[in-house]
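Troubleshooting entry. Yesterday's outputs looked truncated, so today I'm pasting the complete records for two proteins to confirm everything comes through intact. If either block looks cut off, that's the bug. Protein one:
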Amino acid sequence: TARLIVPVLREGRAIGLIEVERPKANFTEEAEAFLARLADHAAIAIENARLYEAVRQANDAKSQFVSVVSHELKLPMTSIKGYTDILRQGMAGPVNDQQRQMLNTIRSNVDRMAVLVSDLSDISRIETGRLKLEIGPVSIAQALEETLVGLRPSIEGKNQSLTTDVPPDLPSVRADRSRVMQILTNLINNANKYTPAGGRLAIGATRAGGFARVSIADSGIGISPEDQAKLFSQFFRSDDPAVRDQMGWGLGLSITQRLIEIQGGEISATSESGKGSTFSFTLPISE
């Protein structure tokens, strides 16, 4: 019996063996060369599998950490909000203008932190498959109307014009209503933030086959081609000073993309620096 044993080497370290037997003649040089090549490929595959598993475990640990931190931050933030409101309203004693301004700053920063915690919680749930969706028919027109209730003050505060064009006969989409409103909020809020005072915002919706397509266009600062390639990456923020001047964590668009995709849709962006941007997303029609 002929036996051939070839070590599986990776960076000079043996990580396995390949053993082959045959009942009669010895192995030819061609067979030995083939097994050597096979061992090289096996070494790469094994190492890649190990690296993939290490990355998976690191991602799981990160998601678990984010989930725990998000949960632990919610209670103290709720307390800070509550006590700040009590103080602002003078329920714990008189408050002068300077103190009220300080309390307003505290409340504003806590609200920002609450958004961050909510975003981190969403990322953790999405990455671990724990995000629960209540799928059903959702009217784009109604979802947009409710979303704009909370966003109009910011839009009007910058004297921006806003037009909406949603056909009354546009079918409902099959999605989670609260998540559709979250998607709309993120995209419209971005359009508002990155469009100068007096600029224009336009929101429209159409049917595209088995999908509804929603577009949010603005006359804002636009996005460079380099930044467009990284637009939906987690924690990405442009180096553009006009972007850095705005508060943000670089999570909104990443979460928006994931929410759209897990509901069966897609998102895209077209833009030119200094000439505004248009974000479009689709969601499946509810049959």
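Protein two, checking that the full record survives here as well:
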Amino acid sequence: MIKKFVSTTLGITGLAVLIGASGIMCAMNTAQAQYVGPNQTQTYTTVSQILKNPVDDQYFNLKGKITDKQGHERYTFTDSTGSIRAEIDDDRFMGVEVTPNSVVEVWGKVDTSRTKPVKIDVKRLTVIQ
């Protein structure tokens, strides 16, 4: 029955195209799959956590103050547990004035080096107060 359907309706070339298209659709469906379960990564929430056990490229989400400017795009970030060097690109401020009394929330990744002190690379900055 299938043989008759293939030979009269699709032909051999049509069957090959149908099988190929089915394979591509299956591959596209699996390419969009992703893992959504628990993971091993930790997000640092205090400066002391970062300084105690720094892991390169580990994410952080900190609340505190930018207390000092050390140079171009280099600052000191301070929370209730300590202070750390912070690299903050000028465009992250988005034109908002931040003073040493401003409370900010910063997100980004930890940056470690064999020859330099640990620092944070701020990807996003929001003024809270």
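Both blocks look complete. Sanity check on protein two: Residues 1-33 form one domain.
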